[in-house]
Amino acid sequence: MKTYDSIVIGGGIFGCATAYELTKLGQKVLLIEKEYLGSGSTGRCISGIRQQFSTPETIKLSMLSVHIFKELHEKFGIEWHQGGYLFLASSQSQKEKYLELIKIQHQMGLQVNFIDPKEILELVSCFQLKNIVGASYCPTDGQANPFLVIQRYVEQIKKLKSEISTFTKVIKIQKNHTFSVFTDTNDAYETPVIVNAGGAWAQEINKLVGAISELPLQPERHEALVTEPTKPLFDPMIVSYDPSCYFQQLHSTGQIIGCYTPDSSDKGINRDSSFEFAPEFSSRALKIIPKLAELKVIRSWAGWYTMTPDGNPIIGETQVPGFFLIGGGSGHGFMLGPALGKVLAELICKKPTSISIDEFSINRSFEGKEALK
Ligand SMILES: Cc1cc2nc3c(=O)[nH]c(=O)nc-3n(C[C@H](O)[C@H](O)[C@H](O)COP(=O)(O)OP(=O)(O)OC[C@H]3O[C@@H](n4cnc5c(N)ncnc54)[C@H](O)[C@@H]3O)c2cc1C
After folding, report:
1. Which one of 24, 82, 214, 277 has the lowest number of neighbouring Cβ atoms within 10 Å?
2. What pTM does this model have?
C-alpha cells in the first residue's frame, strides 16, 4: 500500500490550501477529490474577499488570508484585485452598529472608514439606492478567481512532489495504528493523518471513520448568477441588507456576479437552480444600480454554505487521533481558506500557529451563539 504523511479529502479551497501548506512544511501529501477541483462550493462562490469581520480573531484570520492571496498573486497570478467592500447602512442604528465594528477593526490595524452618501457616489457613480445613510468601506478588501487560486495551489503541490487524485471518491476508512483509505477507483493508501475537507459532505466522510459524534455542520443551498461582461462600472463589492443582496463587478472580465441570502434556508445538498432566483436577484440589484438593467444574465447556479451554529469555520483534531477537520466555510470560506489551511497545517505539524484559533476550535461551545450568513 502506498503511504503518505497525510491524506486530504476534498479539492475545494480548504483542502487545497491545507495540502499546499502541509507540503510546504515538508510533508508528502495525497489530495483526493471525488469530482474536479473546485467542483464543490469553491467553484460556485462569487469571489469576494473581505476583512470586515466583527471579532479580533476573525479579523486577524481574514487579514492573514489577504496577505496570502496577495502573495499567491504576486508569485503565480490569481486575478487578485483590491476594489474594496461597501457595507451599506440604511438606518441610523445600522450606521451605529458599523461604527462599533470599525472601532474593533481599527484596533486590529485594518483600514476601514464609514463614508457618507456623497462619498459612495464618488466610488460608485451609477449608485441610486435611496435612504442610504452611508457605508462601511474597506479599500483593501477584494476579489480573486477561485478556479485560478485552486489551480495555482495544485501546481505548487505537484511541484513540491505531493500528489493529487481527481474523480476519485474516498469510500472507506479503516483505523488501525494508522489509517487505510480506500477509493472507488480500487486504490488503497496508508497514512497517519487524514484531513476531512469535504465541505457539504464532511458529515458523510466523518461517518466513514466511525465512533465519533456528529459534526456541527449543516449545508444550506445558496444561488448565484453572472451577467455578460460590460465596461468598468464600479469597483467594490456592494453588500446591502435592504434589499438583501450582494454583488460586484469582476475586474478581470467585467461581468457582474452576485447572490442574496434566501428568506428560508434550504438545508441539505441540493444543487438545483430555481426559476425565482434570477428575476428576484435582478429586481433587488436594480434598486441599487438601475443601469444593470442593460445587462443579460448568462449563467446561474447553486452551491452550499456549510454552516456551523455560530457561523465561524471549524478546524482541529477530532476525537479520533490523527483525523482532522477543516469545515464550516459558510458564506466566507473562500476568503478565509488560505489562512485556515495554513494554521491547520501548522497544528498538524505541531508548529506554533500563526494566529490563535480558539474561536474556530473544534472543541468550542456553540451555546447561545447565532450564525450571521
Ligand atoms: C452562491 C455562493 C456564493 C459564495 N460567495 C462567497 C464569496 O464571495 N466569498 C467567500 O469567501 N465565500 C463564498 N461562498 C462560500 C464558499 O464558497 C465556501 O465557504 C467554500 O468554498 C467552502 O470550501 P470547502 O473547501 O470547504 O468546500 P468545497 O469547495 O465544497 O470542497 C469540498 C470538496 O470535497 C469533495 N468531496 C466530498 N466528499 C468527498 C469524498 N468522499 N472523496 C473525495 N472528495 C470528496 C467535494 O467534491 C468538494 O469538491 C459562497 C458560496 C456560495 C454557494
Report:
1. 214
2. 0.97
